[in-house]
Amino acid sequence: MGVLSGCSSETPGVAEPPESTPEVTSSAPESDGNSVPRSRELEPCDLLSVGDLDEYGAFEDGEYKDLGSARSCSWQLSNEGGVDGFVVALNVRDSQNVDSMNDVGAGIENLNIDGRTAARVENPRYGDCTVGIEIDAQSRVDVTVNGLSSTEESCPIAEDVARVMEPRLPAVP
């Protein structure tokens, strides 16, 4: 797995989210096979806008990708003027719930995002942070912030973005 880092004026380029994130590679939860996860009705690029990220800088429009078991949209901080960039990504997971998140080095912290079950996973090795938010018993959406130097920088942003995005999710059944 490659490492994601921000860009600098010395090395041109654009930070991009990794092809997959280690904190979200769990097996699917058991289901009765009869219900369709509510996450299927969601498009990740519709859950957040560039304007929602204004307080963190000038972001580029969201870019959609299919990443293994997730439908993903990522927003890259513009690197105009040599400013270090970082990425905010939303990953809709149709067959992984909040309980299936994996510890990647700093434990799993249970959260409540506006009445929804959620969890935060920090990756201290790379400074990345993921907040997984319940959609239903089978699915979740992950807010991942990467490209910053520490989880002390990335986790507050991930939690803030999760709170902005949460009202756009379907009601918890």
TrEMBL record:
Instruction: Spell out the Polar residues composition-biased ranges.
Output: 1-11, 22-37
Query: What's the domain of life for this entry?
Result: Bacteria
Q: Which Pfam families match?
A: DUF3558
Disordered: annotated segments: 1-44
Mind telling me what this protein is named?
DUF3558 domain-containing protein
